[in-house]
Design a protein that fits this description.
The structure holds 3 protein chains of 3 kinds. By secondary structure, chain A is an all-alpha fold. Chain A has 12 helices and no strands. In chain C, helix 1 packs across helix 13, helix 4 packs parallel to helix 7 and helix 10 packs across helix 14. Classes of the chains: A mainly alpha, B alpha/beta, C mainly alpha.
Chain lengths: 289, 557, 296
C-alpha cells in the first residue's frame, strides 16, 4: 500500500539524478564529437562537423582490425580461463575440509590489486631473462617462453594476469551457487553410488549453469574494456600485439588527440556494449521483477 | 665522581666541541643567509653538498626577493622522484631558488608515459596549470604551433636574471630549443646517442689476436662504422669473454615497443639514409640531401626508401648478435645488461657513461670505452637511386636523438619573469655543469664547458671529484663531445605537429619488424602509409609549410 | 533453481566430502595448496624484488642472503626521502576512496531501497537495466567531455572532484548490490512498522537500514577498491593537488627506464590497504559480489 507514497521519489531520485547529471553530458558530447574532425590543432579554434566520415574510415583502419583481434582473444581467453579455474576452485572449496576459511580469504586478494600495478608486476614476472616465471619453466627443464617478444605469448601473458585477477570473482559467485544446491539431490545421487565426476557433471553443473552464464557475460564486458594492464606492462607491444581496442581509443583520443575519430571508435564500443547488455537482460529478464 | 666516567665525559665534550667547530667551519659560506645544510638538506655525501654550494655561489644569482617574494611558480617535470633523473635536480636546487627569489616553487611530477597526454589536456581545456614545463624536444612543434608556449628571448641579457652562456650550447642542440630562430627552450639536458664498448676487452691482445684469426681484420678500437661494430659484436656474441662461465652477449639494445626502441633505429639509420650536400656547405638542405623524414617538396614519407629499409635490415642483423630478450627490453634492462658486464657494446645516451660509475648499477667502472656514433660504409643516394659503398670514406651523420629534456614557458603564465629566472638558473654554467657531473641528475652534457679541450674547458678532475673513474670520464666525455662536433652533417629532428603520433606509429611497426612479424620493407611501407593519413588528417598544406620551415628548406632552392 | 540463499553459510558447506579413502582428501589439500601458491606467487615475487637494487632486480634470484644481498634502499627511499610524497598521495587516495565510498553507498542504498520497495511508472526493470548499462561503458570514451564538465564546476585537480568522478563510476554497483539485498529482504517487518504509523523514511532508517549492515559493508568495500585502483582519470585530472597513489605506481617508469625495485615497493604499498580491508570484511564481500552479479 505504501508503494504509491510520494516518498518513493525521495528515495529513488538522488542516485538517478547523480548518474544522469554526470554521465549524460559526457555521453552526448562524445556522440557529437564523433561527427566532427576535432583534433588538437582545431580544438580551440573551431572544428567542422563532417557527418559520418569518421565512422566511414573505421573499416579501412588497419589498427582497428589488429586491436580487435587482440581484444577478442583476451576477452574470450580470459573469460574461459577464469570460468574453468574459478569453477574448479569453487568445487574444491565446496568440500568440508577444516581450515579452508583462511585460504578462501587469501584467494580473494587479487581482486583488490590495482590493474595499473598488476601490469607493472607482469613486467617483473614475465621478464624473459630475469623473470621468475621463465626461471621456473627452465627449472622444470623447459625452454623460456618469449613472453615479451612474441605476439601471441605476450597476449597470453596479459591474459594470464587478467585471469589471475578475476578468477576469484568467478570462484566466489560459483561457490555461492554451488552451496545453494539442496543436499537432498546429492544424497539421492550418492545412493546410486555415483562418484565425483558424474555427480558434478549431472547434478552440480546443470544447477550452477545459470550463474556461470551470468558471470561469463559480466566477464566478457569487463575484459573488453581492459586497458591498464597492457598499457603499463608492454606499452601495447611487441609491435601492436597487446594493443586492445580500448587502448587504441585511448592513444587516438589522448595521445594523438584525434578526438573526433576517437569518439567514433568509442561509440562503436558503446553500441557493442548496448548489444551485449541487451542480451544480458534478455537472458535474466525473469529474475528482475 | 668516578674517574672513568670523568674521562668519558671529557672525551665526549671534546668530541662535541670538535664537531661543532667543524660545523661552524663548514658553515662559513652562506647564500642569502642560508647555510649549505639548509640549502641542500638531502645529499649523498659531504662532497656533493660542498661542491653544490660552491656551484651555487659561483652562479652569482641576483637577489630577486624584492620582485618575486610571495609568488608561486608551478613547474611540471617527468616523474622520477627527488633523487631521480631529470626531476631530481629541480628538487635539489629548489631551496636555493626559493632563497634567491623569495618565491615558492611547486614541482608537479607526471609519469613519463602520461606526460604529453596530461599537459596537453591541461592546455586544450584551458586549465593552464603550469608556468614552466620540462618537455622532450619532440613536443616542441605541437606546443609552439598550438600557441601554448612563448619565446623567452625578451629576457635575454636583462638585469636581474641568472646568466647562462647561450653560445656554449651545442649548435645542433640549440636548434632543438628554437623555433623559427627564436629561443623557446633553455638549456638543461643534452641528448644524443653515442657508442659504448668494453675497452678492457677490445684492447686485450689475446682477444685482438683471436679476432684477427677469426675475421681476418684488425680489431677496430673503437669501431668507427656500423659494419665494424657488427663484426665486433658478432665475434664476441656467444663467447664467454667475461669469464663467468656463461656465453655472453655482443650488443645490448632497448628494443621494446614503447621502450624508446625507435630511437635506436633513428640513430643507426641516419648514415644509411642521409647524404650530405655537395659544395661548401655539406649541411645545406636540398630535395635529396640532409632530409630524413619527408620529401621537402610534397611531404611524401621517406621512411620506406631503400636506405631506411637497409638500415632496418642491418639493425636486425646487429640485434641478432645479442640476447633474444632484448626485443622486450626497455632502457633500464638494456643498460643493465651492459653495465653488468654481459654485453660488449651498446649505443645509447650519456646516461650510460654516468651510470657506469655507480657501484649499485654497474660493475664496469674503469673498463668503459666511448666513441661517437658509428658511420656507415654503405648508404643510399636518393638522387641517383643507388646504393654507395665506400669503406674508406664512410658516410657520417650525427644525431640529436632523444628527449634533451628542457624547460619551456607557458604562454599563459602570470609570472613570466619568475619563470625565466627559474629556467635560466638551471642553465647557469656552474649549476648546469654541476648537474652534468653528478650523474644521478640524469642531466647529460649540452654545453661546451662540460667537454674537455679542445672542444671545451672542463677537466678530468671535475668529473673525478664527483666519483668518476678518470679513464671512463675521458672516454665518455670525449666521445660525447665528438658526437656533437665531429660529424660533417646531422640528422634533422622531426619537428612538425603530430610528432608524438608519427613516432608512436614508427615505434609500433618497428616492433613488428624486430620480432619478425613483418619484413622491414612491409613494416616501413605501413609506416609511410599511416604517416600519409596522419598528415592528411592534420592538414597537409600547413604540415608541409611547417616541415619546410622546421628543416630550413626553400622550395626550388 | 538460481535463487541464492539469503545468507550464504560458507562456513558450513552442505556437501559432505567423499570419505571412502584418505587419498582424495590429500589430493584436495594439494590442489588447494597449488591454487593458493598461484595466488600468492606474484605477491611473494614483489616482496623479494622490493629488497633488490636495480642491478639485482634483473637477475633471477630468489633467496635473500644466499643468492643476493637484500637492500633496504627501495623501502628507505619510499618511506624516508620520498616519505612526504608517499604520505601525501596515500592521504589523497584515502580521502578520495573514503569520500566516494560514503557517497556511493549512501546514494546507492537510497536508490537500491527505492527500486526494491516501490513501483515506478517507467518500470523498475528498465531503471535497473539502465543503471546496469552504466557498468558497460568504456571510461575512455568520456574522458575529455568529463574533463570539460569538471572544469566548469572548477573541480579539476581537487579531492572533491576526484570523489565525484569515482562516485559516478561506483554508484551503479552500489545501487545493484543494495537493490538485490532489499529485494530479498522480507517486507513483513516493515509492514508491521507501517501499521504502527511510521513514515516511509522512519521505516527505512529504523527498520531496514540497521538490518542492511552486511550488504552495506559489501557495497562499501567494493566501491572502495574500485576508487582506490582508479588510474586513468586521475592521471589526467589530478596530477598535482589531488594526486592519488596509483599515480606514483605508474611513475616508476621514468625517462631512465623502469626502476624495478621501486616498482615492487610501490605496488605492495598500493595493494596492501585494500587487501587488508578485504580480509577483514571477507564474509561481506562474498555476499556483496554474489548479490551484485548473480542477481543483478
Amino acid at each position: 500500500m505504501y508503494k504509491k507514497t510520494r516518498a518513493r521519489y525521495f528515495f529513488l531520485m538522488p542516485g538517478i539524478i547523480w548518474i544522469l547529471a554526470f554521465t549524460i553530458f559526457p555521453l552526448i558530447y562524445s556522440l557529437y564529437l564523433s561527427f566532427t574532425n576535432a583534433n588538437m590543432r582545431n580544438f580551440n579554434r573551431g572544428w567542422d562537423v563532417i557527418g559520418l566520415e569518421n565512422y566511414a574510415s573505421i573499416p579501412s583502419d588497419l589498427r582497428v582490425g589488429e586491436t580487435v583481434v587482440t581484444s577478442v582473444y583476451l576477452t574470450l581467453g580470459s573469460t574461459a580461463v577464469t570460468l574453468v579455474l574459478g569453477t574448479f576452485v569453487a568445487w574444491l572449496f565446496n568440500h568440508n575440509l577444516p581450515g579452508l576459511r583462511i585460504f578462501r580469504g587469501i584467494l580473494t586478494m587479487p581482486l583488490f590489486a590495482a590493474p595499473i600495478a598488476l601490469g607493472f608486476m607482469g613486467l617483473i614476472l614475465f621478464n624473459e631473462t630475469s623473470g621468475s616465471i621463465n626461471s621456473f619453466i627452465r627449472g622444470l627443464g623447459g625452454q623460456g617462453v618469449r613472453w615479451m617478444t612474441d605476439s601471441w605469448s605476450a597476449r597470453t601473458a596479459v591474459l594470464l594476469l587478467d585471469a589471475w585477477q578475476w578468477t576469484p570473482f568467478v570462484f566466489i559467485i560459483v561457490l555461492a551457487a554451488m552451496q545453494s544446491i539442496p543436499d537432498e539431490l546429492y544424497e539421492a545421487a550418492r545412493l546410486d553410488t555415483a562418484s565425483g565426476w558424474p555427480i558434478f557433471r549431472h547434478i552440480t553443473f546443470p544447477l550452477i549453469a545459470p550463474a556461470l552464464g551470468t558471470v561469463a557475460l559480466l566477464r566478457l564486458v569487463e575484459t573488453f574494456k581492459i586497458l591498464d594492464i597492457p598499457l603499463s606492462m608492454l606499452g601495447g607491444g611487441p609491435g601492436s600485439a597487446t594493443q586492445t581496442y580500448s587502448y587504441y581509443v585511448y592513444i587516438t583520443g589522448l595521445r594523438s588527440f584525434n578526438m573526433g575519430y576517437a569518439s567514433s571508435l568509442a561509440y562503436i564500443l558503446v553500441i557493442i556494449a548496448i548489444i551485449i547488455s541487451s542480451i544480458y537482460f534478455w537472458r535474466i529478464r525473469a529474475r528482475f521483477e | 665522581m668516578n674517574r672513568r666516567l670523568f674521562t668519558f665525559v671529557l672525551v665526549l665534550s671534546a668530541l662535541f666541541t670538535l664537531l661543532s667547530l667543524t660545523t661552524v667551519l663548514a658553515q662559513d659560506q652562506t647564500f642569502m643567509g642560508k647555510t649549505a645544510e639548509e640549502l641542500f638538506p638531502e645529499v649523498a655525501n659531504d662532497q656533493e653538498r660542498s661542491s653544490a654550494m660552491e656551484a651555487l655561489l659561483a652562479a652569482n644569482l641576483p637577489d630577486a626577493t624584492g620582485r618575486f617574494a610571495g609568488q608561486t611558480l608551478t613547474v611540471s617535470v617527468q616523474q622520477a622522484g627527488a633523487r631521480g633523473g631529470i626531476s631530481g635536480p629541480y628538487y635539489f636546487w629548489r631551496p636555493a631558488f626559493e632563497a634567491a627569489t623569495g618565491a615558492t616553487l611547486e614541482i608537479v611530477e607526471i609519469p613519463q608515459a602520461q606526460y604529453f597526454t596530461t599537459t596537453s589536456t591541461d592546455f586544450l581545456t584551458g586549465q593552464n596549470s603550469y608556468d614552466v614545463m620540462n618537455i622532450g624536444a619532440w613536443f616542441l612543434s605541437d606546443y609552439v604551433v598550438n600557441g601554448w608556449i612563448q619565446p623567452v628571448e625578451q629576457f635575454f641579457d636583462q638585469e636581474g636574471f641568472p646568466e647562462w652562456d647561450r653560445d656554449a650550447v651545442f649548435p645542433s642542440l640549440a636548434n632543438l630549443m628554437k623555433w623559427e630562430d627564436q629561443w623557446y627552450g633553455v638549456l638543461n639536458d643534452g641528448d644524443a646517442q653515442m657508442l659504448y664498448y668494453r675497452k678492457d676487452i677490445l684492447t686485450d691482445p689475446k682477444w685482438q689476436e683471436e679476432f684477427q684469426a677469426e675475421t681476418g681484420m684488425e680489431m677496430p678500437v673503437p669501431p668507427k662504422t656500423w659494419q665494424e661494430l657488427l663484426a665486433v659484436t658478432r665475434f664476441f656474441n656467444g663467447k664467454d669473454w667475461n669469464g663467468d662461465g656463461d656465453p655472453d652477449d655482443g650488443i645490448s639494445l632497448h628494443l621494446r615497443t614503447g621502450g624508446q626502441g625507435m630511437f635506436h633505429f633513428m640513430s643507426l639509420s641516419a648514415p644509411f639514409a642521409i647524404t650530405p650536400a655537395e659544395g661548401d656547405d655539406p649541411g645545406k638542405v636540398t630535395k635529396y640531401d640532409n632530409v630524413y623524414w619527408f620529401d621537402p617538396d610534397d611531404l611524401t614519407p621517406l621512411i620506406n626508401q631503400p636506405g631506411h629499409v637497409a638500415a632496418l635490415e642491418f639493425l636486425k642483423e646487429l640485434a641478432a648478435t645479442g640476447s633474444e630478450a632484448q626485443f622486450g627490453w626497455e632502457l633500464g634492462e638494456a643498460w643493465n645488461n651492459f653495465l653488468n658486464g654481459n654485453a660488449i657494446a651498446t649505443f645509447s645516451w650519456g646516461d650510460v657513461g654516468s651510470l657506469a660509475q655507480d657501484p649499485s648499477r654497474s660493475i664496469i667502472q674503469g673498463k668503459l670505452g666511448g666513441a661517437r656514433i658509428p658511420c656507415s660504409e654503405r648508404w643510399y643516394d636518393r638522387e641517383t637511386g643507388e646504393f654507395v659503398e665506400d669503406s674508406e670514406n664512410p658516410n657520417c651523420v650525427g644525431n640529436t636523438t632523444g628527449g634533451s629534456w628542457f624547460p619551456v614557458m607557458s604562454a599563459f603564465t602570470d609570472t613570466p619573469e619568475l619563470a625565466y629566472y627559474f629556467m635560466a638558473m638551471h642553465a647557469a654554467k656552474p649549476i648546469n655543469f654541476w648537474n652534468v657531473v653528478y650523474g644521478w641528475t640524469g642531466v647529460d652534457p649540452g654545453a661546451t664547458y662540460t667537454l674537455f679541450p679542445p672542444m671545451g674547458t672542463a677537466t678530468v678532475e671535475d668529473y673525478v671529484n664527483a666519483g668518476y673513474n678518470a679513464d671512463d670520464a675521458q672516454e665518455y666525455i670525449t666521445g660525447y663531445g665528438e658526437n656533437f662536433f665531429s660529424h660533417p652533417i646531422y640528422q634533422t629532428y622531426l619537428r612538425i605537429p603530430g610528432t608524438v603520433t608519427f613516432w608512436e606509429i614508427l615505434d609500433t611497426r618497428l616492433g613488428q619488424a624486430m620480432i619478425g612479424e613483418s619484413t622491414p620493407q612491409e613494416a616501413l611501407d605501413l609506416v609511410a602509409q599511416e604517416w600519409e593519413n596522419t598528415n592528411n588528417d592534420l592538414g597537409r598544406e600547413e604540415q608541409l609549410q611547417i616541415y619546410q620551415t622546421g628543416i630550413g628548406y626553400t622550395p626550388g632552392g | 533453481m538460481t535463487t541464492l540463499p539469503k545468507s550464504l553459510p560458507l562456513e558450513t558447506p552442505r556437501l559432505a566430502p567423499i570419505r571412502r579413502s584418505p587419498l582424495p582428501r590429500i589430493l584436495l589439500w594439494l590442489a588447494v595448496m597449488v591454487v593458493t601458491l598461484w595466488v600468492l606467487y606474484p605477491f611473494a615475487w614483489a616482496v623479494i624484488t622490493s629488497f633488490k637494487t636495480q642491478r639485482q632486480a634483473l637477475e633471477p634470484t630468489f633467496v635473500p642472503f644466499l643468492q643476493f644481498q637484500p637492500s633496504l634502499e627501495n623501502w628507505g627511499a619510499e618511506l624516508g626521502l620520498g616519505g612526504r610524497e608517499t604520505a601525501f598521495a596515500l592521504g589523497n587516495s584515502i580521502m578520495i576512496s573514503v569520500g566516494a565510498t560514503l557517497l556511493a553507498t549512501l546514494l546507492g542504498t537510497l536508490t537500491g531501497y527505492a527500486l526494491a520497495r516501490f513501483r515506478y511508472g517507467i518500470g523498475n526493470r528498465n531503471i535497473v537495466s539502465w543503471v546496469m548499462s552504466q557498468r558497460f561503458l568504456p571510461p575512455v570514451a568520456t574522458l575529455i567531455p568529463f574533463f570539460l564538465f569538471m572544469q566548469r564546476l572548477k573541480l579539476i585537480d581537487t579531492v572533491p572532484g576526484m570523489i565525484l568522478v569515482n562516485t559516478t563510476f561506483t554508484l551503479p554497483f552500489a545501487i545493484l548490490i543494495m537493490r538485490d539485498f532489499f529485494a530479498d529482504f522480507p517486507e513483513e517487518i516493515e509492514e508491521a512498522a507501517l501499521v504502527d504509523g511510521a513514515s516511509p523514511l522512519q521505516i527505512f532508517l529504523r527498520v531496514a537500514l540497521p538490518l542492511a549492515t552486511p550488504a552495506l559493508t559489501a557495497a562499501a568495500i567494493i566501491c572502495f577498491a574500485f576508487a582506490w585502483n582508479e588510474y586513468l582519470f586521475a592521471s589526467v585530472m589530478a596530477p598535482k593537488d589531488a594526486k592519488p597513489y596509483t599515480f606514483l605506481v605508474a611513475s616508476t617508469s621514468t625517462v631512465r627506464g623502469v626502476h624495478f625495485g621501486y616498482l615492487a615497493t610501490r605496488m605492495l604499498i598500493a595493494i596492501t590497504l585494500p587487501v587488508v580491508l578485504s580480509l577483514f570484511v571477507q564474509r561481506y564481500i562474498v555476499r556483496g559480489l554474489t548479490l551484485g552479479a548473480v542477481k543483478g
